[in-house]
Amino acid sequence: DAGVIQSPRHEVTEMGQEVTLRCKPISGHDYLFWYRQTMMRGLELLIYFNNNVPIDDSGMPEDRFSAKMPNASFSTLKIQPSEPRDSAVYFCASSHGLVYNEQFFGPGTRLTVL
Amino acid sequence: KQEVTQIPAALSVPEGENLVLNCSFTDSAIYNLQWFRQDPGKGLTSLLLIQSSQREQTSGRLNASLDKSSGRSTLYIAASQPGDSATYLCAVKVGGTDKLIFGTGTRLQVFP
User: Residue A85: left if φ>0, alpha if ψ -120 to 50, beta else—which one?
Assistant: First the structure.
């Protein structure tokens, strides 16, 4: 298995631009998670999906952030408009089941907003 | 509110030493605890998962223990190697929520 796949690996954009991050979970996993990692706040859960349905988006910082999962093998996290404080590493993770099972992380997308 | 703390924040040891990384959590009502490794610029690699009913898990040179009542977990690394250099994160899955709550990590350097 290829593991969780994220693209792009690095993104540099200017303030105000739209940014779209992509994730392909491990085949057969029914849960998908989006996290953000910064030096100041560590790893934070933004949103997670079960069977393509958003379950908890309470970690999404504000309305500029949105996430979708149109099918079991693809999810996007969009920031519009982007701001310098959005600069972070964004991770996608997936798991089979929620409570008792391991989460497997992708390599992350390093976002820099100038 | 669940808080997860890892001590020490950084550790530097010579190759061959056995070492212990510590993780503590404030709410003992957890479903499981997971240890991860993160290499610079990379994602997280799951090392060990301990269910709340278990006391320890082992994988190769790694052994993780869990004491729910005291809110502690330790990750024991035997015969450390330079390739073990990375940041180690623990995370707990808390009852009543679906979130993994992460610690701030221990940055480990093993020098030859």
Answer: alpha
Separation between Cα atoms, residue A109 and residue B41, nearest integer Å: 10
Reference B28, options B58, B80, B66, B63; nearest CA is B66
Query: Could you say which DSSP state residue A102 is in?
Result: -
Residue B5 backbone phi and psi in degrees, to 5 = -125, 140
User: Could you say which of A59, A101, A105 has the minimum Cβ distance to residue B43?
Assistant: A105
State pLDDT tens for residues B96-112: 666 788 998 999 999 99
Q: Nearest chain A Cα to B46, which residue?
A: A104
- Mean pLDDT, rounded, for A13-31: 96
CB B92 within 8 A of CB B101: yes
Residue B98 is predicted with a pLDDT of: 67
Give the C-alpha separation, A11 to A31, whole Å: 25
Query: Residue A19: pLDDT above 90?
Result: yes
pLDDT at B95 over 80: no
How far apart, in whole angstroms, are the C-alpha atoms of residue B33 and residue B50? 5
Q: Do B98 and A56 lie within an 8 Å CB cutoff? A: yes
User: Of all helices (H) and strands (E), which one includes residue B58?
Assistant: strand B56-59
Beta strands in A1-114 (DSSP E): 5-7, 10-13, 19-24, 31-38, 42-50, 53-56, 65-71, 74-79, 88-95, 104-105, 109-113
